[in-house]
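Here is one such tokenized protein:
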Amino acid sequence: MNADVVVLGMGPGGEHVATELAKAGLDVVGVEKELLGGECPYWACVPTKMMVRATDALAEGERINVLAGRSTIERNWDPVARRIREEATDNWDDTVAVERFKSAGGRFVRGDGRLDGPRGVIVGDEHIEVSKAIVVATGTRPRIPDIKGLDGVDYWTNRGAVQATSVPASLVIVGGGAVGCEFAQMFARFGARVTLLEGQAHILPSEETEACNLLHDVFAEDGVDVRAEQAAVACASGADGVTVTTDKGSTVAAERVLVATGRRADLAAVGTSTIGVDEKERWIPVDDHLRVQGAPGVWAIGDVAGGGFTHMAVHHARIVIADILGRPTPGTSDRAKPRVTFTDPEVGAVGLTERQARESGVDVRTGISKVSESARGWIHKVGNQGFIKLVEDRARGVLVGATSVGPVGGEVLSMLTLAIEAEVPCDDLRHMIYAYPTFHRAVEAALADLGN
């Protein structure tokens, strides 16, 4: 088989590259061993946010008792599971997505593809000769920690949790990052007894300490038993479920275990050694236009190139599409890379944390304001926990990081992402007009706090 372009991995980024290049008239082959669309629409971003929407509705229903009268909540997981199957995933069937790609002019091959040098791809017994470009977009898979006995336990990753047709009576979650925190709150609000284990000092360890502490308090209100500085070291199945032992010697028993300890790329499976990339590397090294170093004609995007988020994969895809078509385009930059943990409150962040900025040698000033002390936060009343934290490079007078925690923390983050990307002077931000009464007015208060 011959092709102008082969895209290895048809997640959101790979699908976008393959579709747009096919529309541009190139002969494109998209290769995917699982479902066209990847992790995001079937097991991650989309179905999990449906779960978040449902749990937020439960929380708002209970807040009626404070704000608007009396309510009685009857929890039922059935509508959540049904919506995931019927509206998000077509019961994990990608027929519609495959037909959409084919209608754009692409050819689809389902199989386990791997590189065969910078001009070849092997899928099963098929060898594809590539004349113009190979785009590696193979994503990542769950990183399973070395826990004694785990291989003998029927544990969940995000996929098992998303496909659940009922809520377990009890759940141990190993890993307190974004995924672990989202699932902890979701299942707790649907009635599960949840224990969250995190080996580091705080849950959400990569975020600002203030966010970790606030979420810890919120989780306590939701009944989540957060155990920081307790890493799982062993687990065993029993008649009533699973018992997990931590490095502190404590144990916790539950009906189910969910492993949420991050994700990793599998470069050996991709065959990166054939293009000169050590298969033991964490990610495929690329330049700012996602070109693989030392392998002309090969690009890598998304998680496998260290992107980390769906929005980064699509951002990468736009750059690669233009690069392959010979159109000028700015390169990528991590200066204003946004991230959101979809808990209640949402934890949005962009750029550097205070600690990261100081460790990189920045002369830092910080400002912080509480959402609850803003007019909108006061009006919102129950459920108004949150804050805005700004990290400024004092010497340049621009923001290098920001955190937005609150009822719509991820939405408020947008203006802060723009400010960091465009390096808008903080003095200019101070003189903006902030609509009243909005949650984003808390940004103005945080700016006023800078240096105080």
About this structure: The chain is about 35% helix and 25% strand.
